[in-house]
Amino acid sequence: MHAFNRHPIADTIREYFAQANARATAGQTNADGESFVPPVDTFSTDNAYVLHVALPGCSKEDVGVHWDADKGSVNVAGVVYRPGDETFVQGLVTGERRIGMFERTISLPPAGASEKEEIDGFNISARMENGLLIVTVPKVEKEWTEIRKVDID
């Protein structure tokens, strides 16, 4: 393995993986903990989409959930604080948790969903449970499909 480290192509491979890692973590956490993008699991049930947003250490008072009908998206934004007073925080030896401001936008319905599915934006609900924000986005099935003639200029 030591011989490989001295091989001319080793630097190229290391640079490739460093760039790939930078792309994969872009927007997640700045070095100083200013902002991050929380991970989300999206589930589809018969009646709703259920979003699980991982927000360990976040209280429900510090997070907001908004539905944008024009864009067809749920936006989750807020802040995670490091607990403790200033003196306690100054004694931080390692900081691996994501803290600071966060934002995540999820488009619904997701690509590939049935064209007959729409979102019931008036009945979206959310709750915090053990560091997990659970957002339930009800589905509504369209009873008809709008077909409209488009004039050609």
TrEMBL record:
Pfam families: HSP20 (PF00011). It comes from the Eukaryota. Keywords: Stress response. Coiled coil: none annotated. Residues 31-153 form the SHSP domain. Transmembrane segments: none annotated. Belongs to the small heat shock protein (HSP20) family. This is HSP20-like chaperone.
